[in-house]
Description:
By secondary structure, the protein is of the alpha+beta class. It folds into three domains: about 5-115, no CATH class; about 120-125 and about 235-260; about 135-230, Roll (Chitinase A, domain 3). Helices cover about 55% and strands about 15% of the residues. The protein has helices at about 5-15, 20-25, 40-55, 60-85, 90-115, 120-135, 150-160, 165-170, 195-200, 235-260, and strands at about 30-35, 40, 135-145, 185, 215, 220-230. Strands 4-3-6-5 form a four-stranded antiparallel sheet. Strands 1-2 form a two-stranded antiparallel ribbon. A hairpin with a 2-residue loop joins β5 and β6 (about 220-230). The longest helix is centred in the C-terminal third of the chain and has 27 residues, at about 235-260. The protein is elongated and about 85 Å long.
Amino acid sequence: MKRVSTLAALLLAALLSPAAPAQEAKAPAKAVATVNGMAIPKVRADVLVAGQHAQGTPESPDLRTKVREELIRREVIAQEAKKKGFDKKPEVAAQMEMARQVALIQAYIRDYIRTHPVSSESLKKEYDQVVARLGDKEYKARHILVDQEDEAKAVIDKLKAGGKFEDLAKQSKDPGSKERGGELGWSSPGNYVKPFSDALVKLAKGQYTAAPIKSNFGWHVIQLDDIRERKLPSFDEAKNELAQNAQRQLIERHLGELRNKAKVE
């Protein structure tokens, strides 16, 4: 599984977080309230309202009232924190700077996505490739994974002698399946490494491999329990998810390019 990094989480937030309306940056600064002589700019309210819109909350006077009150509460607490000198503490100053960086990064990434749109043609091509890889059938399989070919041959001999696959699976070195009798659940052959998938699709229901199967994980003994038709979503149903994945990949490549060009000492 791919590790989810802090940067990846930040990128996801940038994709999903709404931006403040562009016209607000050009309009004269307006205040939604003044707290102890300190004005709260309207653009802050616009950002919070946009965030609520992104979560499905419709525009309403009540929403604006709640957002205004939230901003007043934040300003009151922030002013008290400044009175106590928290803004001068190194660790708080560092957090404030990091928050500023996050806002800049999200704005940059939103703009990059806007200026580098993913075409429907490329999404359709990706969809067709995924469909071809997954196929129209799912397989419910079990396996026993061992280090040596002789160990796998011994497992097959025990199966031929009447041994139960579920019992023999306890010696498997695959921790994710050994306690379930070697069961891997339903999956498309394309989700497995090629030697495994090639052997799996040749089996009949209830049959196990007559010879050990070698992969980069070790030696497998594979049994096919069942087969069923796979129902895949249509292109229109999958399009949004495909677009998000394509955008993430686009951003990751761009960030890699920027990192490679940066002078780091």
